[in-house]
Amino acid sequence: MTSDRVMTEFWLQVRTYWEDTDAGGIVYYANYLKFMERARTEWLRHLGVEQEPLRIEQGLMFVVVHANLQFKKPARYGDLLQVGCALKERSRASLTFHQTVVRDGSRELLVEGEVKVACLDAVKLKPRGLPASILQIEESQQASGGNR
């Protein structure tokens, strides 16, 4: 496994809409998982890895196998949020991320947790090793001092 905080955090800005909230205007808890998924996807995209070509060309896909979240404070309709994503650990066939959701501006912590994704064969749905593109990113990060 790699050391904690292999890469600097990647941040994605998200605005909350009515569709994200319950009847009281509070962001529904499951939507934080959607926000975190978007941040992980954009982190990969920022690093030059697109998931659809990965599935089509290499037969690989990522699936969430574990999520552990702590809800600290609610977000509300219209809030501007920052969703953080940082690679915490890597194994042969999985990535574990530390993820946070904070209120933009104040950086008030709303939700934090860990999400583990496994790399699977897209047809057999069995674990496969991480693609070379992910391993190369990590190697280049470590060679440049661990952070970008």
How would you characterize the overall build of this protein?
With 148 residues, the protein is an alpha+beta fold. It has one domain (10-143): Hotdog Thioesterase (Thiol Ester Dehydrase, Chain A), CATH 3.10.129.10. The chain has helices at residues 29-46, 51-58, 132-143, and strands at residues 10-15, 60-71, 80-90, 94-103, 109-121. Strands 1-3-4-5-2 form a 5-stranded antiparallel sheet, with helices on one face. A hairpin with a 5-residue loop joins β4 (94-103) and β5 (109-121). The chain is elongated. 22% of the residues are buried. The model is unreliable at 1-6 (pLDDT under 50).
Features of this protein?
148 residues; alpha+beta; Thiol Ester Dehydrase, Chain A; elongated
By DSSP, the count of extended strands is: 5
CATH topology: Thiol Ester Dehydrase, Chain A
Strand line-up of the largest beta sheet: 1-3-4-5-2
Overall mean pLDDT score?
A: 89
Low-confidence stretches: 1-6
Sketch the major β-sheet: 5 strands, antiparallel
What's the CATH first level?
Alpha Beta
Overall morphology: elongated
In brief:
With 148 residues, this protein is α+β, with helices and mostly antiparallel strands. The chain has helices at 29-46, 51-58, 132-143; strands at 10-15, 60-71, 80-90, 94-103, 109-121. It has one domain (10-143): Thiol Ester Dehydrase, Chain A, CATH 3.10.129.
Which SSEs are present, and which pair or pack?
Layout: E1 10-15, H1 29-46, H2 51-58, E2 60-71, E3 80-90, E4 94-103, E5 109-121, H3 132-143
